[in-house]
Write a structure and sequence with these properties.
310 residues; Rossmann fold; 2 domains; 6-stranded mixed β-sheet; 4-stranded parallel β-sheet; 9 helices; 17% strand
């Protein structure tokens, strides 16, 4: 990177490392992409940059406009960074269901927050729908652009480069890609590119076991932040997916703690769920195979939660 590069040029080109201690003997090699190396500590920087840039290009977003979005935190933080870099105001609709660390980080970047009350601090279908409805109301104000992440196809393109990075870093020697589903943009963006390189690549989606709607189950409440919205996200593309694995909140939290203590990898609960699912895939594929999943965001975003508190 050249001297004096813009902060948005720091997005992407994250490291890929191999898990050493949590992978059982006889399993495939498991690699994790350290997406917390992005400027805000999350893979969502990629999507936020794509959504705003493409809206600028076609005139949906104009200088002086305010951007509005509903979010559990990471997308909002990433949008806040891009808004600072490009000079837009940002209004975020979020909830007490998400970590105070995330809410504080959005505020630190200057975002205006509107909080929607949750049911006992848990993610539910009703909470997501209430947040969307509130964002929709704010979007009717003049000079306002609603990124509407669950329906925004621009976000998918933000993850194409991530797929190219994975291919380059594995020399194309990859048998499975595993990723949890929130909006489904990251899974769809990465899978669509990797499948072009290798049509036999196994694509595995991950969802909360308490709300396993993609697997045909009923919606329920859970505490894996950023995933499992309680209904099939509009960007979901089932034809790209070979398997869906459901992971409990308890298993995701336990793995997040293990990653910190055994691998030195400090990540959130969705990353923990990713690794739980990746280990299941690795056990099935055997020692000659390679599996890649994502460290979606940094554990620093969850210090106020029960994931890491003593």
């Amino acid at each position: 990177m050249s001297t004096g590069a813009h902060i948005l040029q720091a997005i992407g080109n994250t490291s890929l490392v191999q898990l050493r201690r949590v992978v059982p003997p006889g399993s495939a090699r498991v690699f994790v992409k350290l997406e917390w190396e992005n400027p805000t500590g999350s893979m969502k920087d990629r999507a936020a940059q794509a959504m705003i840039s493409k809206a600028e290009e076609d005139g949906r977003l104009r200088p002086g406009d305010t951007i509005v979005e509903y979010t559990g935190g990471s997308t909002g933080i990433s949008l806040a960074l891009v808004c600072v870099a490009k000079g837009y105001r940002l209004h975020i609709v979020t909830s007490d269901a998400f970590s105070r660390d995330k809410l504080n980080q959005m505020s630190a970047f200057g975002a205006e927050l509107t909080l929607v009350r949750s049911e006992g601090g848990r993610t539910t279908k009703k909470l997501i729908q209430d947040m969307i409805a509130a964002a929709g109301e704010f979007s009717r104000e003049p000079h306002t652009y609603w990124t509407d992440q669950l329906n925004n196809h621009d976000s998918i393109a933000g993850y194409y480069r991530l797929a190219d990075e994975i291919k380059e870093q594995t020399d194309g020697k990859l048998d499975a890609f595993v990723q949890s589903v929130g909006t489904a943009a990251s899974l769809r963006g990465v899978a669509s590119v990797l499948k072009r390189y290798n049509s036999r690549l196994k694509i595995v989606a991950v969802e909360p076991a308490e709300s396993a709607v993609l697997s045909g189950g009923q919606p329920g409440s859970h505490k894996i932040e950023g995933v499992g919205i309680g209904y099939t996200p509009p960007l979901w593309e089932p034809n790209l997916v070979d398997e869906i694995i459901a992971v409990t909140t308890t298993d995701a939290k336990t793995m997040a703690r293990r990653l910190a203590r055994e691998e030195g990898l400090f990540a959130g609960t969705s990353s923990g769920a990713n690794v739980v699912a990746a280990l299941r895939v690795a056990e099935h594929l055997g020692p000659e195979a390679g599996v890649v999943t994502l460290m979606v965001d940094s554990g620093l975003k969850y210090l106020s939660t029960d994931v890491f508190q003593a």
